[in-house]
User: Which sequence fits this backbone?
């Protein structure tokens, strides 16, 4: 897995590798609004996770997920570092880790 200096560098790289959809995080699912699609935890895999610390402000920290759905839709999910972790279901928290079974 590559290491990136900035969030924007990581996004550009992932998009060049086919992670072109944008996902939003909800407590029980992720969604791709442009495709009107909701994915439950069993319907997606996390291929990569990249963490970015704010240079001067810890509130600027973020996590970037490279997501692949079970029907091969690839996209990215950006979350403020832990901002929504309290509201996520246990199943979502377990699935927002790199899935070694995907072998990507």
Assistant:
């Amino acid at each position: 897995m590559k290491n990136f200096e900035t969030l924007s560098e990581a996004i550009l790289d992932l998009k060049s590798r086919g992670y072109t959809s944008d996902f939003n995080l909800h407590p029980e699912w992720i969604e791709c609004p442009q495709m009107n699609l909701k994915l439950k935890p069993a319907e997606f895999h996390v291929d990569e996770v990249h963490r970015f610390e704010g240079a001067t402000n810890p509130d600027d920290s973020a996590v970037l997920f490279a997501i692949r759905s079970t029907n091969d839709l690839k996209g990215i999910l950006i979350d403020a570092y832990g901002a929504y972790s309290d509201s996520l279901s246990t199943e979502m928290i377990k699935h927002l880790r790199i899935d070694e079974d995907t072998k990507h």
